[in-house]
Amino acid sequence: MNRLRDAEHDSGAVSLEVESLKVAFGDKEIIHGVSFSLAAGERLGIIGGSGSGKTITALAIAGLLPTEASVSGSVRMNGRELIGLSDRDLSPIRGERIAMVFQEPKTALSPFRKLGKQMTAALALHYRLSRAERRDAAMRLARQVGLKDPERMVRAYPHEVSGGQRQRAAIAAAVSASPGLLLADEPTSALDVTVQRGILELFTEITESNSCSLICITHDIAVVNEVADRVLVFADGGIVEQGTVQEILERPQHTITQSLIAAAGGVA
């Protein structure tokens, strides 16, 4: 059990420095020299419309772009350069230092494996766990993310639970090894409004209790208002505006930002 306790305390929030990041597919450049920083423990929102480059940027940070993508520039996590690392070198970083929650939990989770197994996959990859330790970890994670009746949930398959429960299980899988940086890509857009608030509250609780930095990618500025300290506005593969959430909401300068706020009906 000490190995699980060590896993919970190994990581801590990480700082991130992105400088002149470019991503191209063939001759077409998608991301045009993006630069920003993330302080340890900070919650950053990245907003923009479809095709603005926000998800490609997150995938580049996590080293999850397809092999045909060409990536240049710098991504440093706690001073360590990630761009150019091989899959072998990135493997121990993913899950244990950086984790990602995707938009659609139904596709992010395997339909053929029970939720308990999937919630503890990263732990099992990085730590040698007995069957009892893995089950205890699954139960702990289920409770941590607010899954009611955890005994049933860890034995259930994804199709046997609701969309909100699947997303909570996906979050549990992402944070199981206590990563220092959590990337959440449109984490509530596939959920109905009544479930969204609970998921956003969970992100705040998880990042605070796990001492974790957060980058939340979304098209909905109301989501950023709930979870972020600072926001970057993306358009056409670059950052067009940035500031604290309050600054962006009260004094939006760019027309893209103004249209995002208008689309959300204004944010209280």
TrEMBL record:
Molecular functions (GO terms): ATP binding; ATP hydrolysis activity
One GO location term (cellular component): plasma membrane
Name of the protein described by the UniProt record: ABC transporter ATP-binding protein
Keyword Flavoprotein in record: no
Residue span, ABC transporter domain: 16-261
Family annotation (CDD domains): ABC_NikE_OppD_transporters
InterPro entries named among the record's database cross-references: AAA+_ATPase, ABC_Ni/Peptide_Import, ABC_transporter-like_ATP-bd, ABC_transporter-like_CS, P-loop_NTPase
Top-rank taxon: Bacteria
Species of the source: Leucobacter denitrificans
Keyword field: ATP-binding, Cell membrane, Membrane, Nucleotide-binding, Transport
Entry annotated with the keyword Transport: yes
Subcellular location: Cell membrane
Main localisation: membrane
Family (UniProt): Belongs to the ABC transporter superfamily.
Xref: SMART domains: AAA (SM00382)
Membrane topology term: Peripheral membrane protein
